[in-house]
């Protein structure tokens, strides 16, 4: 009976995680409900002794998430605005919840195939979302003949362009990783399907016009090309891969001047001697925001201003600098490293960096291309957006960081010092 019950729980977990990977992209309002149902299912299953043993086995990794979330909880103690602080820690709850739940599973619950299927489902959901975005934007273009409607915010139907571009880069990473590791005997139709998905993702990431997304995609192709040349030792394929990327990027540059116009505009803004304090330009605002946030950090270097007060202190700093437009928009720091530094201090910044650096070192040491691409994608986007201040960023980061780590760890068990019996059941 227990064996049959365990089977049904395993099936239920898979449904929840597949549904979560779809909802992140298409219907983010369903995400909190799915997380709650997942947690209730985990509690109802019981077996906490075995789950605790599995968590201990993987704790060298999950401890970073625990520490990061604990610092935000501690930040409530010296916060005045507890309403905002409690809302923030509730928003960030999946940062600790998902890693602990997934790390408690034995291998029988989440085997390697199931774990790998989660990012695959996410990737093809992203492809579907991008196609829907284009259909929606093209309908608007058909009525207005206004070409910019096919780009940036007008194109990004489901999320802010930066988030959708980050999703697209990860989906492209999954597609390319699958393509370069697919055995020669696999059917040509399968490979053509992957190439088609890759082309769609490449084009839409360009059209989304997210500067961070375009940079992350460039890094993706460079890292993958180096991987093919050095790890797979396929010189011809590596040169062909990088060559096709350069040609494709050049064609995109000529075909989508509006998308690349944002990059040129960024260069112009950076060359300006002075910036209007009430500018509505996104790039110029970011520069001013970072300067104001730096002032907040200088006065609260060690502990930060507190989980609940970071928003109020940033707005106060904007007003001091005469940034009325930015202050009225209640803008965050538009940089997760700065946002965390301002909120919970130097220790929080170090832990955030470690949450990327430690698994990154593991990925490099064990030649795990997909995990490394995920971490570089997130790490780069953290430079331009406060990704963990929105549900989409929190779920994306916590879910795929732990999924890719457990997948990697189950493939390379030597990463852990001791191996409890429960893991391999």
- Biggest sheet record: none
Unreliable sequence segments: 413-425
**Count of strand segments:** 0
Give the topology string: H per helix, E per strand. HHHHHHHHHHHHHHHHHH
**Using only CA atoms, what is the Rg?**
22 Å
Can you describe what's shown?
The chain is an all-alpha fold and 425 residues long. It is built from 18 helices and no strands. It has helices spanning 2-26, 31-45, 48-77, 82-91, 94-103, 112-144, 152-155, 161-181, 188-208, 211-230, 235-255, 257-271, 282-299, 310-320, 324-328, 336-365, 369-381, 391-411. Helix 1 (2-26) runs antiparallel to helix 2, helix 6 runs antiparallel to helix 18 and helix 16 packs antiparallel against helix 17 (369-381). The longest helix is centred in the N-terminal third of the chain and has 33 residues, at 112-144. Residues 413-425 have low confidence and may be disordered.
Q: What are the key terms here?
A:
0% strand, single chain, 18 helices, 425 residues, mainly alpha, globular, disordered C terminus
State the gist of this model:
The protein has helices at 2-26, 31-45, 48-77, 82-91, 94-103, 112-144, 152-155, 161-181, 188-208, 211-230, 235-255, 257-271, 282-299, 310-320, 324-328, 336-365, 369-381, 391-411. It has 425 residues and is mainly alpha-helical. Helix 1 (2-26) packs antiparallel against helix 2 (31-45) and helix 16 (336-365) packs antiparallel against helix 17 (369-381).
């Amino acid at each position: 009976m227990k064996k049959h019950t365990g089977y049904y729980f395993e099936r239920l977990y898979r449904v929840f995680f597949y549904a979560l990977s779809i909802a992140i992209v298409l219907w983010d309002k369903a995400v909190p409900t799915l997380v709650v149902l997942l947690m209730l299912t985990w509690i109802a299953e019981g077996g906490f002794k075995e789950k605790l043993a599995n968590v201990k086995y993987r704790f060298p990794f999950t401890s970073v998430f625990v520490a990061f979330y604990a610092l935000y909880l501690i930040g409530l103690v010296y916060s005045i605005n507890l309403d905002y602080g409690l809302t923030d820690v509730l928003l960030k709850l999946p940062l600790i919840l998902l890693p602990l739940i997934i790390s408690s599973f034995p291998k029988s619950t989440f085997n390697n195939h199931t774990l790998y299927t989660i990012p695959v489902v996410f990737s093809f959901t992203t492809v579907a979302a991008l196609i829907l975005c284009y259909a929606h934007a093209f309908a608007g273009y058909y009525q207005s003949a206004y070409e910019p409607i096919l780009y940036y915010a007008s194109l990004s139907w489901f999320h802010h362009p930066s988030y959708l571009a980050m999703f697209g880069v990860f989906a492209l990473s999954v597609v390319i990783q699958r393509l370069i590791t697919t055995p020669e005997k696999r059917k040509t139709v399968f490979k053509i399907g992957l190439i088609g998905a890759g082309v769609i993702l490449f084009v839409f990431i360009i059209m989304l016009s997210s500067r961070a997304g375009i940079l992350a995609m460039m890094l993706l192709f460079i890292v993958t090309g180096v991987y093919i040349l050095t790890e797979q030792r396929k010189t011809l394929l590596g040169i062909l891969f990088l060559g096709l990327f350069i040609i494709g990027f050049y064609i995109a540059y000529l075909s989508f001047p509006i998308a690349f116009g944002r990059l040129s505009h960024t260069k112009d803004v950076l060359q300006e001697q002075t910036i209007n304090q009430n500018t509505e330009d996104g790039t110029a605002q970011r520069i001013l925001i970072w300067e104001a946030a730096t002032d907040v950090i200088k006065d609260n270097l060690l502990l930060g201003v507190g989980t609940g007060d970071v928003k109020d202190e940033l707005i106060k700093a904007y007003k001091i600098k005469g940034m009325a437009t930015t202050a009225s928009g209640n803008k965050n720091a538009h940089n997760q490293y700065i946002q965390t530094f301002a909120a919970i201090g130097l220790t929080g910044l170090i832990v955030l960096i470690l949450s990327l650096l430690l698994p990154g070192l593991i990925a490099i040491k064990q030649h795990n291309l997909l995990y490394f691409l995920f971490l570089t994608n997130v790490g780069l986007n953290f430079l331009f957006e406060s990704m963990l201040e929105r549900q989409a960023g929190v779920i994306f980061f916590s879910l795929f960081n732990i999924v890719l780590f457990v997948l990697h760890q189950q493939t390379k068990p030597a990463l852990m010092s001791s191996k409890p019996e429960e893991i391999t059941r």
